[in-house]
Design goal:
This protein has about 50 residues and is mainly β. It is about 15% helix and about 40% strand. The protein contains one helix and two strands. The protein has one helix at about 40-49; strands spanning about 5-15, 25-30. The protein has a two-stranded antiparallel sheet with strand order 1-2. Strand 1 and strand 2 (about 25-30) form a beta hairpin. The longest helix has 7 residues, at about 40-49. The two termini are about 25 Å apart. The mean pLDDT is about 90.
Length: about 50
């Protein structure tokens, strides 16, 4: 992964229903960040040091 994207993953358990057996589903998502970050002002940057 990079600074612009990250991956989410998870498991979901589906209960049995009528003639369908119980099943476990695995999912994954690749998320891309599309928000631009503003530059810190000089005083904000000094506060972080």
């Amino acid at each position: 992964m990079s600074e612009e994207s990250f991956e989410l993953g998870g498991l979901q358990l589906h209960s049995s229903f009528e003639s369908h057996p119980e099943r476990l589903e695995r999912g994954g998502w690749l998320v891309s960040v599309d928000m631009k970050e503003r530059e810190l002002t000089k005083s904000e940057a000094r506060m972080l040091r």
